[in-house]
Structures are given as C-alpha cells and as structure tokens.
Amino acid sequence: MSSDSKPRVGIPYRTVAEETVNKRDKYDFYVQSIERAGGQAVPVSLKLPQAELVSLARSLDAVILPGSPADVDPARYGAPRHPTTADADPQRECTDYALLENAFADRKPVLAICYGIQFLNVFLGGSLVQDIADEIGSSIQHGRGGLPLSEDRFHAAAIAKETALARLAAGAQLAEPIEARINTAHHQAIRTPGRGLRVTAQAPDGVIEAVECTGDSNWVVGVQWHPERMMGHALSEVLFRQLVLAVTGATSRAR
To answer: Percentage of residues in the chain with pLDDT exceeding 90?
Structure first.
C-alpha cells in the first residue's frame, strides 16, 4: 500500500443468494462504514474460483466479516444441528475461511461482526450456542423478536478492563465501569472461545458480545452486535477507524 492510497478492506457478500440478486441494503452499511473510516471497501464475491479468491485475499490490507442470515454449519465444531439453526451457506464459509487463513498468515487486521464473530470463533476451534433462548434462557431478547428490519433492540454490555476494546471504549469516553449500550439481532453466540481468543464484553446474562486475539497476530476483534448500523455511536464507529489504522502495522509485507 502506497502512502497516499487508502487501505483495501475486503468485505465478503453476506450470502450467495443476496449477491446473485444484488441485494445490498444491509451489505452497503459495511461499505459505507469503511469509507467513512478512511478505507477502500473491496467487495469479495462468494462465487470466486479458489485460485482467484486466494489471489484477491493476498491483495487486501484488512478484512471485515459481516453478518448473515445463515448459521455456521454445526459440523464445523462437531455438534448436532439444533432445530432452530438456519441453513449454512457453504460458499460464504469457504470464502471466510480463505480470508481468515490469509489474514492470520500475513498478520492483517480483522473485524468480525455478528455471524462473522461466530465464524472467526469456529475457525479458531471454538464452539457456538446454537439457540440462546433454548440453551441459555434469558430475560434479554437477543434476537429480533418480530421487530421490522428497520429497527433494533438494545441492551447493555460490560467491557473487560485492560483489553483493546476497553481502550477504544475509553477513547469513546464511556463511563467507568466500562459499559456500552449495543444493538442486538442474533440467536446464536460463542459458547467456547477458540484458540487465542479472549472474551472482552458480555451481556448481563453472560452471553459473549466481543472477543479479541491475544497472540502475536495483528489487530483481530470480533463483536456480536452490528456497529455498521449504529452511526453516531462512538464505540461502534471507532471500531471501523481502528481497523483502518491497524493496517499501518500490517502492510510492511511484500505483495
């Protein structure tokens, strides 16, 4: 990346079905968030042949893994399928896998959102709660619960101290103890964190809302909420800015 160019941030389409009919209403929230943060959004097709996908992955400076109406195939973490688990999108899974494989190999920044945090966790050997309401039970409504697509539910999330997320929250001037108010639209969540992942935020009922890598990889953060839909929310917006800023520590490699 030259000094006067914008970091190239790859964003896979949410599903093959949406890509096929060019349904971009939700996808474009991610594009706009990256562009506001100073990056160049690079759409990643879910239909690329493997060689083209690998080549594109190598050309990227950072990756966002967006949300999806699909669920991660439970076979990937050795669990039987729950009746409420949505169909997997194999092409989305293969695309995310290739992007993460390259990002970890070349120490590129990653921001994983909703479905993205779940796939990141499974990629690193973790497991998922397939249905929060059935398997955990909670007074908190984590899913949409019949709300129209234009609206979100919100709940609190406690952010662990001395984490990358806590430092971002401090910069966003959240109160101590650090607590954020986040939107929520998911029925699955992380059960067992994957290798090298530290839990950095939890809902009052214990549901994991954010993780980050603790090893020597570059900046890798996952959040269960949807920061792309929270324009004006300080912590959510700074996540995208930090992803772009983190590229400067990941672009010394040769392409």
So the answer is: 67
